[in-house]
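Hi all, long-time lurker, first post. I run a small reading group and we've been trying to get comfortable going from sequence to structure in the token notation. Rather than ask abstract questions, I figured I'd post a concrete chain and ask someone more experienced to write out its structure so we can walk through it together at our next meeting. Sequence below, copied exactly:
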Amino acid sequence: MHRPATPGTLCAMRTAVSYGAGVPNDTELGLCGDVQGKRVIELGIDSESNAPALARAGARVLVVEPAADRITAARTRSAEGGYRLEAHEADLADLGFAPSASVDLVLCVHRLDKVDDLARTLRQVHRVLRPDGPFVLATKHPAGAMLAPGAPIGATVERTYRSAGPFTLNHLFTALQRSNFGVDALHELEPSSDAAAPTVLVIRARKLGD
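-- Answer (accepted) --
Happy to help. Here is the structure in token form:
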């Protein structure tokens, strides 16, 4: 269930694409590349939207999100920030509004685990991307999910690997491979040097084929 949100708490004016609180953003990782003049889909809105940062970098941003309050917040923030935003209230796999091979980048931060049909969602992302176009995703790291948030070295494991996170690494990599993506970058992000395990997994996968 989605909690109602206000424009001030969702879609804050980020200055760089964020992959989560306390971990490096895309200024350091450089996964999205130069988005000037590019057509970019933000697939789902996490606690805050990356649309302001993308728009400020010159991208033409489209947001897809099933929660009406998050769409309203994104539209309000775009009006306040003076940038254009195309927002679609829809399931994350419903990308029929975008022609095939018409999108330069798809970004999904901590929302892929919310989809009902991962395979269908990945097929749609593959369809709308241009050849070799990047799909950048961030999700909860399955190792970090075994521990309490922010657990230091020596912390007790609270969950098994297979029950902790939304995906195991094998599950996610297999799904990407079957959808004809090739992974060319992977980052396991830790919130601090004394963290017992990485908390965020960030992957860049490129569309293979036409």
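A couple of things your group might point at:
The beta strands are 39-43, 60-65, 85-89, 105-109, 134-140, 181-189, 200-207.
Residues 1-12 have pLDDT under 50 and may be disordered.
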